[in-house]
Amino acid sequence: MSFSKCKEAIEEGDTVILYIGVQQIYALEVKPKVVNKIGQSVDNVFQTRYGSLKVMNLIGVKYGSKVSLSKGWAHVLYPTPELWTVTLPHRTQILYTPDISMVVTQLEIGPGSVVCEAGTGSGSLSHALLRAIGPTGKLYTCDFHKERAQVALDEFTRHGFGERVDVSHRDVYVEGLGVEGIADAVFLDLPKPWEALSHAVSALKSSGGRICSFSPCIEQVCRTCELMASMGLQEIKTLECLAREFQVKSISLPVISKSKQEAENSKKKGSQEGPQEPNKKRKTEEQSSNETKLVEENCKRNDSEMEINPENPSDNARQPKNNDFRIKTGVTPLKMPGHTGFLTFATVPPGLKPVSLLPKILGQDDCIE
User: Fold this and answer.
1) Euclidean distance between CA atoms 212 and 103, whole angstroms
2) Core vs surface per residue 315-343: b (16+ CB within 10 A) or e
């Protein structure tokens, strides 16, 4: 029950996060027995590449402490929705922290809010919503898959959220969200969200509220936005959250030769002075010739000092030897992370009544499955 309230020490029944490294983060339940792959009840001993950990030995240990493994060590962390997102058992595709943070912000969810969620899935977003609404709020979440809804309910109960969440198994397209006129915000994670928009409006308070629809395809977004506008929803906008990584690298820039600047200034000055005496003109030409040779030598020297990394030609980082100007800067990788989905937000104005879905608007003969 460590999700629902803060505590210093680990107790039996808690869910803890075992942190070994960035790529090795695991969620463990502190209980004496677990069921193995062949259905047998065995002692709760967790195996890692750095040895085993007897999970029951964590009782009484403070969160954030360093614990010993049989061949190494790790840290036990307090569970948060962000850590749960990267360690939860996947029953469906999930929303990750960048999208979740945008949903919570745009839906204006806070302590005491009442939220409806269509599409419980693996519960990644649900845990973030439950933290945001606090003990005085309420989350109504439903899923089309009966077993998935029951597993989610058991999970919420183990995490201490049983009193602030209501999980149901229903077909949202036909039965709606199960509530009317009490919600502050509605989140739709459905294949055809446009067919549930009227139910979403019915679930919101008469004073209005916010609606969000998550869709992986732009065709779904177009269909949803078209119906939102026809129903009278306002402030319709679609966002896409992409993580862009910056790598700090050192690059080198060539230093402009001082001799080259002097040669250009001398040439410019000579052209402004007009005709010169033969001896003075001959002297100026010799000086200019010497300066030109010096500039060419400096240029050759600078070119020889610049070396391009043949293994990474796109980096354009020059390796200095002598006089290059060296700085640190942020460089973005050539390949960007893949697309997750589009988030479409809209505001339901006060007093808006839900309307029936018109076939002409929806184009039922061309629905997205």
Assistant:
1) 7
2) eebbebeeebeeeeeeeeeeeeeeebbbb
Alpha helices in 185-257 (DSSP H): 197-203, 218-231
Going 204 to 210 to 213 to 214, the CA torsion angle's sign is: negative
What are the structure tokens assigned to 63, written together? 């969160």
**Helices and strands per DSSP (H, E), number in the chain:** 10, 17
The pTM for the full model equals 0.74
Helix (H, G, I), strand (E, B) or coil at 132: helix
Bridge partners for 239 per DSSP = 343
- State pLDDT tens for residues 170-181: 999 999 999 999
- In 3D space, the residue among 164, 206, 175 whose CA is nearest the CA of residue 350 turns out to be 206
| Residue from 62, 65, 44, 64 nearest 54 by CA | 44
Burial of 213 (0-12, 13-18, 19+ CB in 10 A): buried
Nearest-5° Cα angle at 269, 298 to 277:
110
Residue 157 has pLDDT above 80, yes or no: yes
Do the Cβ atoms of 123 and 156 come closer than 8 Å? yes
Q: Dmax of the chain from CA atoms?
A: 107
